[in-house]
Protein: DUF1489 family protein
Organism: uncultured Acetobacteraceae bacterium
Amino acid sequence: MPAAPPRHQILPVSHLIKLSVGPRDVGQLRAIQARRVEADPPLRHQTRMMPKRAAEILSANGSIYWVVAGFVQVRQRILDIREESWDDGTACAGLVLDPELVPVEARPQKPFQGWRYLAPEAAPPDIRPGAEARGLEALPPRLRRELRDLGLL
């Protein structure tokens, strides 16, 4: 029987996962980001904590996986992670994002605060271009919400 890995072993990461607070669907997330990049390029998401493993994420061409309406639904490549500050001068991290939202196989995700590291093997796979039109995204948002509320999705 192989020995268990040491408890202090640090597993490789290449992604982050984050709740998208506010948008009820991916279309709203896309619209919010479009306005944000227009007003203050480049597109970035500011977050309070700087990832200590930023170098790993950047060297692996990592992504941020967005949880929208209780499901991991899309990802965006992280192009850079830099120190920034909010309007009041408080330090924060700026995650510079590729504007393309890449659909992934939807999977339920319970709420959590902040962001979390996501190992490559735990990340949901991308959906092939064109395939998403036949999936959940093809359903009207109201119907998707009702199905989720009933526990059918």
Summary: Residues 26-39 form the longest helix (14 residues). The beta strands are 15-19, 44-47, 63-68, 71-85, 91-97, 102-108, 115-118. The chain has a mean pLDDT of 89. DSSP finds three helices and seven strands in the chain.
